[in-house]
Design brief:
This protein is an all-alpha fold. The protein contains 15 helices and no strands. The protein starts with a helix and ends with a helix.
Length: about 300
């Protein structure tokens, strides 16, 4: 078991290169600029207003909802860029044979690359969120530390999920080009095409399959939350929505319904189900996200194990 040596070398290489520092700067810029605009724009307006409810919404919970709009599409892209060539790139250059000539198994290579590249995405995200929190403290916004810490950890997990997907595809691909096409395809599927896929599936099943409306709506919800980007959005919504934002509804209930593909689906689900079963809880959705971290590298390893280099 030498995966830790591979992970350490991968992470050390990133520290020596400009990658880690460029990413840190980029994340810091993205996570701190909204603080300024909220504090100086909305914050100044609310402070001059006489309505105390207007000032009450100026917390880091509002900032988290703004950051979510940027983090949900941006973090997966960066994770894919970091990890898609983790193994396929070494295969292209011939260094993979050299690596496997040392006392490393193929399982060590997959696990080591996952941990090393995972560290490269997690460290900049945590640095940026800590600095962003410090800016919140000195601004007119109120810092709600519990929510902000959970947001930072969920964002780091989203990065690790897409690193895991990219490493799994990189292990299974025969060339770096195949790995790039595969990872970009997965991102486009989840970020762009998933809602269209769900709407099409809903119409197809509604027309041809003998399933009731309730079963169909639950299937839509399960498939919506199976998308790791949508699961991340729903979890962040659950921790950051306030009663003022949800109109007194349970924030977790509203965040789950928001995950559905269309407003019509959301309305029908809300009219049919007043409460949610336990398998839509935050813990269950979090568990589904963690499954992605294991599943793709495992499938990639099983293909990689049988490949003749």
């Amino acid at each position: 078991m030498t995966w830790h040596a591979i992970a350490r070398k991968d992470f050390s290489d990133a520290i020596r290169s400009a990658w880690l520092w460029v990413l840190s700067g980029l994340f810091i810029l993205i996570f701190t600029l909204p603080v300024y605009f909220l504090a100086e724009g909305i914050g100044a307006g609310a402070q001059s207003a006489t309505d105390p409810e207007a000032a009450a919404v100026l917390t880091s919970d509002l900032l988290v909802q703004v950051l979510l709009l940027v983090a949900a599409p941006f973090v997966p892209i960066i994770a894919i860029v970091i990890a898609y060539a983790a193994i396929a790139g070494e295969r292209d250059s011939g260094t993979l044979k050299l690596l496997l000539s040392l006392p490393h198994s193929r399982a060590d290579v997959v696990a080591g690359k996952l941990l090393g590249r995972g560290g490269v995405i997690v460290v900049p995200i945590l640095i940026a969120t800590v600095l962003s929190a410090l800016v919140v403290v000195i601004s007119t916004l109120e810092l709600r530390a519990g929510t902000y810490v959970q947001f930072a950890l969920l964002t780091a997990l989203l990065g690790v999920v897409f690193v895991a997907i990219a490493v799994g595809i990189s292990a299974a691909a025969r060339t770096g080009k195949q790995a790039m096409v595969g990872t970009v395809g997965i991102y486009v599927l989840f970020a762009v095409l998933w809602n269209s896929f769900l709407s099409g599936l809903n119409e197809l099943l509604g027309e041809y399959a003998p399933v009731g409306d309730g079963t169909l709506m639950h299937l839509q919800m399960v498939l919506a939350l199976a998308n790791p980007i949508e699961a991340y959005r729903s979890l962040v919504g659950s921790i950051s929505y306030t009663e003022a934002f949800t109109g007194g509804e349970d924030p977790t209930y509203v965040a789950r319904i928001d995950a559905l593909a269309t407003f019509d689906h959301q309305l029908r689900f809300a009219e049919t189900f007043e409460t949610l079963p336990a398998y839509y809880s935050d813990f269950a959705v979090l568990l589904a996200l963690v499954v992605w971290v294991v599943a793709f590298p495992l499938v990639g390893f099983l293909v990689f194990r049988e490949e003749d280099l």
